What does this fold into?
Amino acid sequence: KDCDLVLLVIDARAGIVALDRHFADWLRRFDKPVVLVANKCEARGTAAGALAEGWGLGLGEAVAISAEHGEGMGELRDAIAARIGASPPGEENPEAEEPPAALAGPLKLAIVGRPNVGKSTLVNALIGEERMLTGPEAGITRDAIAVDWTHKGRAIRLVDTAGLRRRAKVEGKLERLSTGDTLRTIRFAEVVVLVVDSEQMLEKQDLAIARLVIDEGRALVLAVNKWDLVTEPAAALKSLVRRIEVSLPQVKGIKVVTLSALTRQRVHALIDAVVAAHKVWNKKVPTPILNRWLQHMVGQHSPPLVGGRRIKPRYMTQTGARPPAFTLFCSKAADLPEDYRRYLVNGLREQFGLPGTPIRLTLRQGENPFAGKK
Ligand code: GDP
It folds into this structure.
């Protein structure tokens, strides 16, 4: 029901069987384009009969392929393009402008966390359909690669965590996560929701995943699930916030959403937080504004003397977004103390509205980037 096009695959060696006819009739009830694909056509003699018979299904001419040998892929691509009206690769208009990468297209979201924290339940609640199955059995999440939906007009693409889930459960390693799978999921996403369990909030494994997300430079949102089980919410929240301040100072101001995937309470608030985090993560600060701010910061509190000479921050520019990255040109850059660097990073965060995102600050030795022109 959700697709744009259906490929009905038949086995050319077996010929058309009753089940093929059944599916062909069934598919005709939907108003969807169908391409009939005759597979296993590598042995030419066998294909002819099936191709002729294929006409009888009333779905037009079959495309002969051999999936195993990779034959007929060009024809199949053409047939797909012809049905959905897209130009085949290589024929796009080269003049066409790329949309600005940052905010065009769906927001790529991943949901990660230890097994049993409620990821699958949350996904079901989010997309409002039972697309992923949850329950006690091992490895039952369907292996969907991505699910698209729209939240308040914003297109969201959920990158599935099926691989992670399956491996964790099938191998019975309930206490061990496969870092490789989590990492792959994280790299695929722009915003990562880390789901933790209200009854075991931010334990070692949770923090390890959070640090992976931060190290990869993704926007992180914390979802505290099973909040319906919490008897003293105010106290629980207070201890959680303290824990975050101590354990994850790199993402000061990170969004924390308490929710219940089971009762669907505050599930939409989570997506509001995701969209907000994505915006922050994409933010760009114009250079003149940045340098006025830098002068002010240095005026308020100047760096210490080193060997009788003052370290002078000269010039700052934003050298990247997703996550925000800044470069500071500074005399005696190597001597700038860590607490001064923190002073600047925290200042950037507060002044330019960058809560909860990792901020990268690179120091460069030098007067300013135009020093050579003096
Ligand atoms: P996953 O391994 O992270 O995908 O976790 P599941 O979605 O399979 O959930 C694990 C268990 O926690 C299931 O028994 C769920 O019914 C339960 N669960 C999930 N979300 C909630 C919630 O918000 N509240 C409560 N009380 N239980 C939940």
User: Anything to note?
Assistant: The mean pLDDT is 81. The CA atoms of residues 100 and 184 lie 25 Å apart. The first strand starts at residue 6 and ends at 11. The chain is about 35% helix and 20% strand.
